[in-house]
Write a structure and sequence with these properties.
mainly beta, Methylamine Dehydrogenase, Chain H, Lipocalin, six-stranded mixed sheet, 11 helices, 70 strands, 11% helix
Length: 972
């Protein structure tokens, strides 16, 4: 099927919905937690982009119901602004603006009418704290554009039928002009305070400095003026028209036509002047058949060039530096072209792109528990997700037992102009602009499934509607299982979802990160299974009223409650989530309980008031001011600070924190070493950047961490720095000789010895001393391993590094809790003599210095009684250890439920062989300076193990975002 990029008409009409649950109540936003996708990037069209006067901060707004703040020139995500949202379209953002000083963000769109009686609100956010500071309400139409005046004293809004302006000092209304027949999508202020507005009713209007109507002009460039930009140098006005091929330029005083630029086929929807006034940028739905290109034209002269920005419509443009441009698109992506036309920032959505799927791009097994799909346009980068095996694998060739959708057996044709389809000669009407994209016919030929722009429809063979369900985005692919019980659909929000064919009820959803292939699968109530690092691709959005910013909690905050692969695996069999839960609980010996209100178990929320993100500090001690709030009402029991994702040092005698305070301060000591070093202090005139994080805890768990980056300049080591090299403590546990001979492993003990020996060579190099505690085979009893963990925690100071290496068998109990099996373990009852994940987690969490864990515990489980040969799923343990409250770097020998392989040809396990090679210097791939960093070792081990095992084993590395890429080893 050919690729059909969405036109602007469709983008203006189709709203990408990203809601999974929730309920709305008249008069106020819903208080029911809403499960949503969160990738760190937008997942739906980015309608507007803006930048402050100093060009340090970028604001993006999207119909995914979030606004995001990014830093320039590095493009780092600073903060996600969360407004109250609801079901369907409520909360979708189409307009956003930054105040000239960058301190205030205004966002709006379809915002507030669900509980305000069709009245729209504009939300104003403090960009430093992310808090909502005000709500402007009483707006009668959807807001399409927002603009601050150059002096920051006014805010203008363009709506579907007019414009409104407020004075920012007191926020009193200064103008409310409803004399428009269609929407205002283009607003811009002149330097002198005048205002220009472009409306699709065909007019461009000018308002005086005191906002009195002055002039109205028609025929500026076509019948549908859309984008509008005013040159800050000459005050010339550029107007882009959706129905025309031109950008027209007019002088401010006379508004007489100066020039026009022909963009070929298509139409223009956005335009911007360069900051120096020498260039004009414009883009639209298509230029010469190419979507996503920006035309850069020199005003005086013939110089011109095309900038390829996206493969979707460019929706907004803003000037950057002197001759550069910032853009956003419907892909979604946003980015920056510098003065020379180089693309220096390009943030692309992490959502899979199911557009243009080929016939075999969505194939499924008979029971729909395996599904094959492509992560990229036209079905490229194909993957197979296996629900029972809990795996995601690349699969270039289709599988014989997986079938594409059936499309023969019924005569179905489409009439584009009338938005209808013909079924066996019977016409079935669709809604206006509703486009049929995908279809599948049931095995009995009695029904067929239609996936459209907004709906999933099931019809009988006569074209009569059986049921219709709203979808979380455009439907790009559908299939029906061979047993006729399930529907599988690929949606525009990047999800694959399974529906019960009898009534269309959703049973399961899958999201795969398009770049790194982390994944999470979840039921409507939030029970999930996830790959390592995948669980926080979803989370709970919680509204806090109409006038307060919403909260967001990653799924990992509720791991103990919702991480239930046993429930997820059953839901496609039972066809009912409640039944799947009861069956899973019965097998695990649990009593199924009615789930309590999630709002009563929400973790605390912290915010850092100072220092500001990016602040420069002097000295080794930083005073941190913070706020803490408990949404559940449970008392805060602790507040903890971390620096570079390790426990913060606090000066002796200082009270660590007052947990009862809603606002407090604490002092943290910055380490002498830069975070990307191995721990040795060094002089650095450029200084060191450190991440300071604060998180709070209640009885319900630890909340998300608030983080700021601070830069300490002229960081110089104290006298005698060579004497202050850190120590490296290594607990190396390898168990191949078990009390139960059936558990024997050939190389686990040797792996531990070889790994420890490789690190021992670092003594006197990167580390002042390397101290190894080996526990091999019979010596690795449960008591010895517990004592070893205690030793590792007690010995490692804030300056040191701790390494835990575990090689042997691991096992999950019936509740999904992980146990490492020591030499005296009882595999039939891991709780009795196993080392629980809680002990491993507590040890690594409380270590003062850097902490690394190397886990090689997914060896063949055929000898583990009652486990049916299935390898342990170590992903949950890895997610726990790498979470911000634990802060470890975790190297895993394999993904999910893969086996960890050993072979006499290697004289080791594949994982250890690769580690030893990498630490010896082969992993010094990037810097090539004789050092081996965390990221370099991870990359080398991943490639080497795949090579050794022919792709049967795939290592993985997890670390939280605030963990630096520090040096682990140096070569001779």
């Amino acid at each position: 099927m050919p690729v059909l990029p969405a036109t602007l008409s469709r983008l203006l009409t189709v709203s990408t919905v990203l809601f999974l649950s929730g309920q709305s109540f008249a008069g106020s936003p819903s208080t029911t937690p809403i499960l949503r996708i969160e990738t760190g990037m937008h997942t739906a069209p980015i309608w507007r982009i803006d930048v402050d006067r100093a060009q340090r901060t970028v604001l993006t707004v999207s119909s995914d119901k979030t606004a995001r703040l990014w830093s320039l020139p590095d493009g780092k995500l600073l903060r996600t602004l969360r407004l109250p949202i609801g079901s369907e379209d409520e909360g979708m953002l189409y307009a956003g603006a930054l105040s000239p000083d960058g301190k205030l963000a205004a966002v709006a769109g379809r915002t507030g009418d669900e509980w305000d009686g069709d009245v729209i609100s504009i939300y104003l956010f403090d960009t430093v704290t992310g808090s909502m500071v005000r709500r402007l309400t009483g707006i009668e139409d959807i807001v399409r554009d927002l603009e601050f005046s150059p002096d920051g004293q006014r805010l203008a809004a363009g709506t579907d039928h007019g414009i409104q302006v407020w004075q920012t000092d007191g926020w009193l209304s200064a103008l409310n002009d409803k004399d428009y027949k269609e929407g205002v999508h283009g607003l811009s202020f002149f330097n002198n305070g005048k205002l220009a507005a472009a409306s699709q009713d065909g007019s461009v209007r000018i308002y005086s400095k005191d906002l009195k109507f002055e002039k109205k002009f028609h025929g500026m460039c076509g019948l549908k003026p859309f984008g509008l930009s005013i040159s800050s140098k000459k005050s010339d006005v550029a107007v882009a028209c959706r129905d025309g091929k031109y950008v027209s330029v007019f002088g401010e005083k006379s508004l007489k036509f100066i020039s026009g630029e022909n963009v070929g086929e298509g139409s223009v929807i956005t335009t911007s002047w360069s900051n120096n006034g020498g260039y004009l940028f414009f883009s639209g739905e298509s230029q010469f058949g190419i979507f996503g290109t920006i035309y850069k034209k020199k005003v005086q002269g013939s110089e011109e060039r095309w900038l390829l920005a996206s493969d979707q419509t460019v929706l907004d443009l803003k000037p950057f530096k002197n001759e550069g441009v910032i853009f956003s698109s419907g892909l979604p992506n946003w980015g920056v072209f510098n003065d020379s036309g180089k693309n220096i920032i390009d943030h692309v959505s992490a959502s899979p792109d199911f557009r243009g799927s080929t016939d075999d791009a969505l194939t499924i097994s008979e029971d729909a528990k395996r599904v094959r799909f492509g992560l990229a346009l036209r079905g490229k980068n194909p993957q197979v997700f296996d629900l029972d095996a809990q795996t995601l694998k690349t699969a270039f060739a289709p599988f014989a037992d997986m079938k594409p959708p059936r499309i023969e057996g019924l005569k179905i044709s489409q009439e584009d102009k009338n938005y209808s389809i013909d079924v066996n000669g019977v016409k079935f009407l669709l809604e206006k602009y509703e486009r049929p994209n995908a279809q599948a016919i049931a095995p009995q030929n009695d029904r067929f499934l239609l996936g459209t722009s907004w709906y999933l429809r099931l019809l009988d063979r006569a074209g009569k509607l059986i049921w219709k369900k709203s979808t979380p985005g455009e439907t790009w692919g559908v299939n029906i299982s061979g047993n006729g019980k399930l529907i599988t659909a690929a949606y525009g929000d990047g999800t694959i979802r399974w529906h019960r064919i009898s009534d269309g009820k959703e049973l399961l959803a899958l999201f795969v990160h398009a770049h790194d292939k982390r994944w999470v699968a979840w039921t409507p109530s939030g029970y999930y299974m996830a790959s390592a690092g995948g669980e926080d691709l979803i989370g709970w959005h919680v509204n806090n009223g109409a006038d307060t910013a919403a909260d967001f909690f990653g799924a990992g905050r509720f791991r103990d409650r919702f991480n239930r692969p046993d429930v997820v695996q059953r839901v496609l069999t039972t066809l009912d989530e409640a039944s799947a839960l009861r069956e899973a609980d019965a097998e695990a010996g649990r009593r199924t309980q009615t789930e309590p209100d999630l709002r009563r178990a929400l973790p605390p929320v912290t915010a850092i008031l100072s220092p500001a993100d990016g602040a420069e500090v002097t000295g080794a001690t930083v005073t941190v001011r913070y706020t803490v709030r408990s949404p559940s009402g449970a008392p805060v029991t602790a507040v903890r600070a971390r620096v570079d994702n390790r426990p913060a040092e606090v000066p002796r005698g200082q009270a660590r924190i007052d947990p009862a305070a809603g606002e407090g301060t604490l002092e943290v000591v910055l380490p002498a070493a830069c975070p990307d070093s191995g721990g040795t202090p060094r002089a650095d005139r450029a200084g060191c950047t450190h991440a300071i994080s604060v998180s709070a805890e209640t009885r319900d768990g630890v909340g998300e961490a608030a983080t700021v980056l601070v830069r300490r300049r002229n960081a110089a080591p104290p006298a005698g720095a060579d004497l202050l090299k850190p120590k490296l403590y290594v607990l190396a546990v390898g168990v191949g000789q078990y009390a139960d001979p059936a558990l024997k492993l050939e190389f686990a003990g040797k792996d531990a010895r070889d790994f420890a020996a490789a690190l021992k060579t670092q003594s006197g190099r990167l580390y002042g001393e390397v101290i190894v505690k080996p526990l091999i085979d019979r010596d690795a009893t449960r008591d010895a391993v517990i004592d070893g963990l205690d030793w590792l925690q007690r010995q490692t100071t804030a300056r040191d590094m701790a390494v835990l290496f575990l090689s042997g068998h691991g096992m999950d109990d019936n509740n999904g809790d992980y146990y490492f099996l020591p030499s005296d373990a009882d595999a039939a009852n891991p709780r009795r003599r196993g080392v629980p994940n809680s002990e491993i987690q507590k040890t690594l969490r409380d270590i003062g210095g850097k902490a690394l864990a190397f886990l090689d515990t997914c060896h063949s489980g055929n000898a583990l009684g009652g486990r049916k040969g299935a390898p342990v799923d170590v992903d949950r343990l890895a997610n726990e250890l790498a979470s911000h409250e634990n802060g470890s770097v975790v190297f895993m020998s394999s993904l999910g439920r893969q086996y960890s392989l050993e072979d006499p040809r290697w004289n080791n396990g594949a994982f250890t062989k690769a580690l030893v090679e990498g630490l010896s210097g082969k992993a010094s791939l990037v810097r090539r300076d004789g050092t081996v960093s965390v990221d370099e070792l991870s990359a080398y081990v991943a490639d080497r193990v795949k090579e050794l095992t022919g792709g049967r084993q795939t290592p993985n590395t997890l670390k939280s975002p605030n963990t630096p890429n520090y040096t682990i080893a140096v070569t001779p």
